[in-house]
Amino acid sequence: MTRKRIYEIAKEFGITSKELIGKLAEMGMPGLKAANSVDEEEYGLITNLYQEETAPQSDVIAEEIEGLSVGKPEEGEKVDHRPSRPPIVSVLGHIDHGKTTLLDAIRHSHVTAKEVGGITQGVAAYQAKLGEQRITFIDTPGHKAFTGMRARGAKATDIAILVVAADDGIMEQTMEAIDHIHAAGIPMIVAINKIDKPNADIDKVMNDLTKHGLTPEVWGGDTITVSISALKEENIDDLLEMILLVAEMENLRADPAGTLEAVIIESHLAKGRGPVATAIVKNGTLREKDIIVAGSTWGRVRAMSDDTGARVHQAGPGEAVEILGLQDVPHVGTMIDVVKAQSDAKAAAAKQKKQEAAPRRSRAKMSVEDLFREAMEAEKLRLVLKASSTGALEAAKREIKEIDVEKIKVDFIHTGVGPISEGDVLLASSIAEECVVVGFGVRADGKTSKLAERDGVVILTYDIIYELLAEIERALKSMLAPEYEEVRMGEVEVREVFKIPDGVVAGCYVTDGKIERKAKVRVLREDKELFTGEILSLHRFTEDVREVQNGRECGIRIKDFNDIQSGDRLSIFTLKEIER
Ligand code: GDP
Fold this sequence. Notes:
Blueprint: E1 4-5, H1 6-12, H2 17-26, E2 37-38, H3 40-54, H4 59-68, E3 88-93, H5 99-110, E4 125-130, E5 133-138, H6 143-150, E6 159-165, H7 172-184, E7 188-193, H8 202-211, E8 224-227, H9 236-250, E9 261-270, E10 274-283, E11 286-287, E12 291-294, E13 297-305, E14 311-312, E15 314-315, E16 320-326, E17 335-339, H10 342-357, H11 368-377, E18 380-387, H12 390-401, E19 409-417, H13 422-430, E20 436-440, H14 446-455, E21 459-462, H15 465-479, E22 484-500, E23 503-516, E24 520-525, E25 528-540, E26 543-544, E27 547-549, E28 553-558, E29 569-577
Parallel strand pairs: 3-5, 3-6, 6-7, 7-8, 18-19, 18-20, 20-21
Antiparallel strand pairs: 1-2, 4-5, 9-10, 9-17, 10-16, 11-15, 12-13, 12-17, 13-14, 13-16, 22-23, 22-29, 23-27, 23-28, 24-25, 24-29, 25-26, 25-28
Helix pairs in contact: 1-2, 6-7, 6-13, 11-15, 13-14
The structure holds guanosine-5'-diphosphate.
Guanosine-5'-diphosphate binds next to helix 5.
């Protein structure tokens, strides 16, 4: 027997992959994923277990097995009764690697054309079916669109498909896409495409993936890969099956009767129809005539149509619909809320509009030093780094990594060669924490700068790496509390101690150097340090003085210290700030 995958075995025993994985973890095989496989012996063990479970048991064994069963919730664990919903999937990858062809292939092979309309409408998403299960595909491929949908904090996509052409391997935009997917924190499936081509080299792609920290699970890693030909529509089922598996692991659930959660994934102004927006419902149900707020705009849903262009009256979880009736074109990535009254909708939209009018953060007044100081306080410097060449990029990365700044970790959200793009800005702004875009020898064009301004993303450009390093160093210096070193000033011997109503006065003799009223003092008794502190008063005879020179007598009171004895020595010093 060849190796069997977890999900195949789960299917065999009529349980979910999640249940099986949990069970295997208890049996001492932790960390398995649905796409992982087991050998013959392990398969035998699993078979035994499940055959035992389904066979009639004595009460005792049945109880034992009950205790083991991970399918049942633990006591106190909340059961999620909501039905599962279709996963929402985005396709990313380098140009010409076959994103559009793949989306077309899935649409062609797995979307049943409805009688009305046919599949003619250019709606920004569609639902594919595999058996009885559905998957929602966002039909705008690419990482710019992907991150654009996230830039406002909405989470449109559940799973990302990274398309890599087998005749080309990992390219610049593949790497960008990987970083965008990582930043989104969602699972990824790699579709190795164009395997029909004579020069297709799947091993090379897998090798490339491994080099980028994405070791394929067939090579012992945990990156799921599926080899396909989008053009020839080969292995599309496998890909869809894998998507459903990952979705099962993600446990995507939604309540059609719950609060509406829907995200705008596309919007435009259509001649004769007014603002048109496509939304994907993630929870609840959107209905015709609903009064909705979408960021700074609002409206009453006048009409809705599904991905086939057919008119629908409602849309539930996982469904994408085109909406007519909004007053204005909403931004992509905006969440939709349903409200009761038109007046509420108007007020909410107006409030949002006002907020949008003000820049997200007032960066104009902020110096670069302030910015880095913020990062330092967070102990993390998040950067999107772009450079003019691979060499420059590598050098910059190396130097920045070596920045010796206390406790600060540099986190490269994305690095790449080429000008600063809108995608870079979107990526930086989609991250909840502060993220700065840095360019070496590269700039941002006008459109990108405008976007950065709107979203409050700081772009810093330098021609040489040392300019940035100097900037960081300056910020560091201004931030760290100054450090001091002691500078010895003199030494004093205590010859007599006089009690006064509120303390003691030490009658002293300066044996070395001098003593200043503003200096610090350390009390030494038989070479042991007793106290370090400040001088409260210094006088000669009855007069307060600023300093007393070597060979003279004086009276000293020490702040917060009265346990002075004759024979003690006082070491006098000042503090000097250390230059860094
Ligand atoms: P995108 O830029 O990633 O959307 O790439 P496209 O889907 O536009 O595909 C780019 C080119 O690759 C087109 O000429 C496609 O016909 C071709 N292509 C896409 N998938 C395959 C495939 O599986 N096999 C072959 N031989 N060509 C493909």
